[in-house]
C-alpha cells in the first residue's frame, strides 16, 4: 500500500487531537503545502534502451549498507499511534533494510529499540539545556550500537501550530519520553485551552543560546558521525562544512517550524551545490512516493526520509505497515529508475528532471 492508503486508514484509527498533531504545520501551513506541491511541478526526462534488467537501490552511508535510500525521519512519541511504538517502527524499517532515526522524544528506550532492530539506527537530538542529559543519552546510544547522531537545528523554539494550540494539545500521560531524564520532562506544561504543551515544554527545556561554536562540545562527546537536520540555505551549508559536521539534512521540519520557509525540494539544489561533495546531503519534506524520492536523489540527496507516512503506516498496520510502506516506496523508486533508464542510484542526476527546481534564484 502507498502512503496515501495508510493515511486514509490511519485517519479513522487515531484520536483527533493526535491526528492534528501529526498532520499539522505552523501558522497558515503554507510551507507544509509547498513541500508536497513542489513535487507536483516536476516532470521527468526518461532515457530508453539502457539495459534495466537489474536495478540497484542499495546505498551506503557512514560505512553502513542500506537496501533502500528511503528511510524514517525522527518523529516523537510513536506510542501515540501504536502500543509497541518505536519497537514496531524499528522492526518494520529493519525488514525493509531502511534507516530509522529515533527521536530524542521516543516513547520506548533506545536499548529496546536497538534490540528490535535489524537495520541501521541513528539517534536524533534536540539541544536541551541539560547537557548532562544529552551526554548520558549519547553514551547509551553509542553503547547500544546507534551509528550516528542527528541534531535538529531548526527548532530553537517550536513553531506556532494553531491546531495544537486550539486543541490545548498535550501528550497523553501514558505515553512518555522514556529516554529523557524525568527532571527535564517534569517541566512539561499541561497545555490547556489555547496552548500547546509541546511548545511550552520546549520553551523551558531547549537551549536557545546555542550557536555554531557549541558544536565543538557535541563533537567532544562522541566519535559517532554528527548530522545536522534543518538546513535550507547555501550559507548554512557552507558553515556546516566549515564546522566539520559529517552530514546534513535539507529539511523545513515538514512545515512545522517557520511557515513561509522555502519548500524543502526548492532548497535542495543550492545546498547540494554549496556542499560540493564534502559530505552527504539527505532530504526530507513532502516525499510520498518512490518517484518523489527519485527526484530528490536526482538533485543530489544521498538518502530521503519520510516523516508523517511511517506514522500513518504504523497506526494502520504496526511493524508490517511500516515495512509495507517502505517496500512499496522502494519498489516505486526501482520502477522509476528502470523507466527513466537509470538503473543505478549513481545514474540519477539533474538530467532526469525537465522542470527547473529551486524557485526564481
Ligand atoms: C508528529 C511529528 C513529530 C515530529 N517530531 C520530530 C522530532 O522529534 N524531531 C525532529 O527533528 N523532527 C520531528 N518531526 C519532523 C520530521 O522529522 C520531518 O522533518 C518531517 O516530518 C518531514 O516531512 P514529511 O512529514 O512531509 O515527510 C516530526 C514530524 C511529525 C509529523
Ligand atoms: O519536532 C516536532 O515537530 C515535534 O512535533 C515535537 C514533538 C515533541 C517535542 C518537541 C517537538
List keywords for this structure.
binds flavin mononucleotide, two-stranded antiparallel sheet, Aldolase_TIM, oxidoreductase, binds benzoyl-formic acid, FMN-dep_DH, FMN, 361 residues, alpha/beta
Overview of the molecule:
The chain is of the alpha/beta class and 361 residues long. Helices cover 40% and strands 11% of the residues. Helix 4 (86-95) runs parallel beside helix 5 and helix 4 runs parallel beside helix 14. The longest helix has 32 residues, at 308-339. The chain is globular. The model has no long low-confidence stretch (mean pLDDT 96). The site of flavin mononucleotide has 23 residues, from helix 2.
Write a compact overview of the structure shown.
The chain is an alpha/beta fold and 361 residues long.
| Largest sheet properties | 8 strands, parallel
From the alpha carbons, calculate the radius of gyration and give it in angstroms.
Answer: 19 Å
The small-molecule ligands in this entry are: flavin mononucleotide, benzoyl-formic acid
Query: Spans with pLDDT under 50 lasting ≥5 residues?
Result: none
Question: How many helical stretches?
Answer: 14
Termini distance?
37 Å
Output the helix-strand order.
HHHEEEHEHEHEHHHHEHEHEHEH
Spatial strand sequence of the major β-sheet = 3-10-9-8-7-6-5-4
pLDDT averaged over residues:
96
The coarse silhouette is globular
Overall number of strands:
10
- The helix/strand class is alpha/beta
Beta fraction = 5-15%
Q: Helix coverage percent of residues?
A: 40-55%
